[in-house]
Fold these 2 entries.
Entry 1:
Amino acid sequence: MIIGIDFDNTIACHDESFRKIASEQGLTIPKGEKPKQVVKDFFLGKENGNLEWTRIQGKLYGAELSSAELFEGFVAFLEEANSLGHKLFVISHRTRFPAWGEDIDLHRAALEWLAVKGLLSPESIPLENCFFETSLEKKIERIERENCSIFIDDLDHVLEHSEFPTQTQKVLFGKAHSALPSLLHWDGAKELLNNAQAEFSCPPVKKNWKPLPFDQHLDCFGKLLQEAGKSEPTGLEQIKRGGNNCVYKIDIGSESFLGKVYHRDTVDSRDRLGQEVAFVKYLQSMQIKESPSLIGEDQSAGAACFDWIDGTDFDSGLPLCDDYWQQCFSFLKKIQDGRETIEAQNLPSGSEAAFSFRAHFALLQNRRDYWHGHNDTIPEEIRSFLMTELDQEYKSLAKELISHPDFNKELEADEKIISPSDFGLHNAKRDEDGQLAFFDFEYAGWDDPAKTIADFFAQPRFPVPGEELNGLLAAFYEIFSEQTMEQLLTRLPLVSRIVRLKWCYILLNDFHPVSSKRRILSGKKLNSVEQTLTLMNGFVNTKPLLTNSL
């Protein structure tokens, strides 16, 4: 079997550390209560207590992790599992650096703790089997990717997550649960292994994420077109390779179509094909003509065909008139007209959707954590900016967000928007009459309207003049109630700061060995060091949206 195990409060016991904090605060821990929960409830019950609770977690899980104890009975379980030939994995949700407080590498701290306890070795838990993921969603994806037969965790909300793999047996550690199998302590794990052994005689089958070979692209497109009643292709021109996908212009006589083979691998599990197909089908159901229609799709091959859009791509040196922005606003408004339909309700969330300040911050923190741990490829001038000015703004924003009274508040359904994502003139064409058509909806779906607005104004390739904000907000006033708009305008300045910092980290991909190579192959021109610094300075030092508007 493949046995996955959480780290904090499952392998590493922090009870004594939390008891110490409880004692310092004069708290009594009722019988049967976990000291962590008592301490957490205490701080979250205080005004702005979330900031202090976040700092405490970062401290205990980082600088003071050495105080954590190994749960009694875990070593015996480990030896028993290894003797039976099972594979053991540690899969934990840990940000790379604390959201607030001392900057310490939490992943490294956990690995060092495992090593000190004698658990990190080929004979116990191999280093290559330890994964510390920066979000809950990534943790669950990892559980599925490693084909875990069993996963043991102390948090029921992890095991009950809607995306938790169905083939993995759930085991709740440390407490009883009415609906979940429980392991109250490691001394009872032998029975768990014996019971599970019969059920999992072999690991589940992995998903086939093999990319479609290049020499099969034309055959795949030909099949999709013929199924749609078209003739065999007479010509195939590759117009983009690399980046997220391969894109082709397919000719059948005088007719043209667009073919896409989507990037898929085991590391990046985003379903770009599924997102785009679902969104385009929704647009078709609404009879929206400013985008290409779907001709056919092949999920197994990761490919799809669309109508070809005649027109001219926008050039960065082209003067941009107000009418182009108005057409963008009109498109955004038009796609909201069907928000109550079944087709709209069945749309997925956008691939980086966020419906709370907490979710927005988690996405930003993931990007920041990555580049703080992988900044050796960044030129010195940019690295200096990253570690000083950019990080100062990040920490200032983190403090404001974590202490915000609505940090955890989720948007209601009627406060969300159907978003094209990655939306702007960089994904549009114009015809001879100046009419726009929009495309590339690989990340589209339900999202936060504040994020949609902020992303639109932050897109660096075709900067939108700040004075156009009122025009976009006017369109939104026709979509949402006055109360919802009030809340949106209140949230927008903070969300715009988050999005602009996010774009700073995105710009660093031009200096990532793999990402930069893919961008070059796709025909994208990489920014120079000077251009990158100029853009990053603009994002950091520009006032948030609305401060100069309305």
Note: Residues 137 and 163 are 8 Å apart (CA to CA).
Entry 2:
Amino acid sequence: MSQINQSPIWQALNQHKKDIEPISLREMFKSDATRFDQFHIQFNDLLLDYSKHLISKETINLLVKLAKEADIEGWRDRMFKGEKINSTEHRAVLHTALRNQNETPIMSDGEDVMPKVKNVLKKMRRFSEDVRSGQWKGFTGKAITSVINIGIGGSDLGPAMVCQALKPYGSKTITPYFVSNVDGADLSQALEKCDPETTLFIIASKTFTTQETMTNAYSARDWLLKAAKDNQHIKKHFVALSTNQHVVSQFGIDTENMFEFWDWVGGRYSLWSAIGLSIALYIGMDSFEELLKGGFEMDEHFKTAPIQQNIPMMMGLLGIWNINFFNFSTHAILAYDQGLSKLAPYLQQADMESNGKFINRDGEHIDFHTGPVLWGEVGTNGQHAFYQLLHQGTEIAPADFIMPIESHYKIGKDGDEHHKILLSNFIAQTQSLMLGKTYDEARTEIEKQGFEGEDIESFIPQKTFEGNRPTSSILFQKLTPKTLGQLIAMYEHKIFTQGIIWNINSFDQWGVEYGKQIAKQVLPKLSEKTPTHDFDSSTNGLINYIKKYL
């Protein structure tokens, strides 16, 4: 089967790139005062401005044809219908069912999954309300004040990101902590802040065998029992997010306090499921359901909007344009909201674990770029860290600038001084990355600063900016649970769009598993007294060096 880069439309895009490349963004904006009007999409209060990309109307027309060539709409419909589009694991991809708000059945293997989804949501509501109200007691009769979520990957990144983002909606009596790293420092530092009498542990592992998660879980159990003394008290302080009832029970957790999720829920798409229990405990089930509602609204937009008016599809296509035709290999996530400080790490997993692959659905080696390297930092912190490279670096990194118009925090003059400064920086950065600064503009600026003669000539190259750096601006009214749900689902569907065009399976992660397999081989060697010779010379050398100090 021929790959998408061999298609006539891909070749047309290659030629179009050559035609448009000599035209700068500065020139594009100067020649067309309606550029913003042409290249923005609004859905509810969410605005995507993509006018600062190296595109024309023809670019968009060609990219839409590319999407149709890849049958993006057909694949989208197959996903929502519950077909097993995760071909390597023979699974449906139905995280969208977790946030479904209508009464339409969603089928998987001939079964409507919605009754099970609703039952788990009801169970989450009962449990979270018991804990938040103080009815759920620890082993000494005290209410829970700390919740430690122990998981890894999608069982950690999503809930941690959402809880950080929605702090204004968080409980005043419960503090969430997230432990994922098997490094003992991660768990120890969380435990230092907690009291065993008032701490609830959430153990998130589908199989209840994940090495990192269970190592932390057993150490947490030891910590509790050092104070509680009686194994019967485990039931008051541990709940499980799992499907392995037998092992959960062996651990000491009451299976009544086991919350299930299903094979058709991928880890990095799981915060909408029982994996979001820590979210519900922190922000309350009403707010958690608003998060689900926001995700559902974006699902409906993705399902129904034509490609050119479809925010996730257009974001995905712009990424294809930048990655495959301009060879921009990285993408920055730049959120101008402190609450979104964990968004970039969350999206790193969502995108790079999904589309970081060189084998397509047909088992063929891909001879073009797929998933970009994602990275980023919040707001003005990033400006004073790596924006120098964004403006004048030799590597061009397209970026998403993300910003709420209104802040939850009223501080400074008139209560909005801080936020207006933030807004001004948000706007200024995208404009400066687009415009750059010409030789003449740099000269004028330097002359105004009082420099003369040779100083001017030496400074001009340093203060000249090429511009022409593509960015998207994403604005919304306020960071609410519903808005955050829309934002997360938007990126999920963007990733899906790119995966379909590249003809890769965005829902497996065999690369993650491979390293774990080797780690299991290495672990026993670290306890052997004699030197190992079982691996390559580097691996043997590292193991044997480490053993000198163990």
Note: The chain has a mean pLDDT of 96.
